[in-house]
Amino acid sequence: MKKAIMESEYREETDSIGVRRISSNALVGIQTARALDNFNLSDVRLRDFPEIVRSLAMVKKAAALANADLGAISNLASAAVIAACDEIIDGQHHDAFAVDVIQGGAGTSTNMNANEVIANLASLKLGLPLGDYSEFTPTTQSTVRNPPTTFTPPPCGWR
């Protein structure tokens, strides 16, 4: 009985490296979990900069609007992504932006953290559980023509 309770506290997500257990109520996914493991360089998190978190959501919202206009995503998908972005812009869910502001790469961890949060929120809006990426994947649907490194704040932006 105790084992079944413990297992329900987690969901499993898979990427090209393997399988990871993610807290079942987390808005983030496997890429954010890996970034937290690999780039835990300071005690300063993305959530400590609400203006950057809001800016990320604005960029992703603009992409959803443009992609809907182009027919690259459905109006339903666009509406769910836009609603998710609006919640972030309004200051909700900032605690899910957990990656370290000091990281390797070209902002990929920052963008994947945002993409996972947005994909999960959009999925919830369609009645899907967290971690169900059947409608919104962090690497495609929520970011069509907006690759994971589109939003890269300059180093001076972290002051």
Précis, in short:
The chain is mainly alpha-helical. It contains five helices and two strands, in the order H-E-E-H-H-H-H. The protein is 44% helix and 6% strand.
Brief descriptors of the model:
5 helices, 6% strand, disordered N terminus
What does this structure look like?
- The chain has 159 residues and is mostly helical.
- The chain contains 5 helices and 2 strands.
- The protein has helices at 2-8, 30-38, 50-70, 75-89, 108-125, and strands at 10-14, 19-23.
- It has a two-stranded antiparallel ribbon.
- Strand 1 and strand 2 form a beta hairpin.
- Helix 3 (50-70) packs antiparallel against helix 4 (75-89), helix 3 (50-70) crosses helix 5 (108-125) and helix 4 (75-89) packs across helix 5 (108-125).
- The longest helix has 21 residues, at 50-70.
- It starts with a helix and ends in a 34-residue tail after the last helix.
- The relative contact order is 0.18.
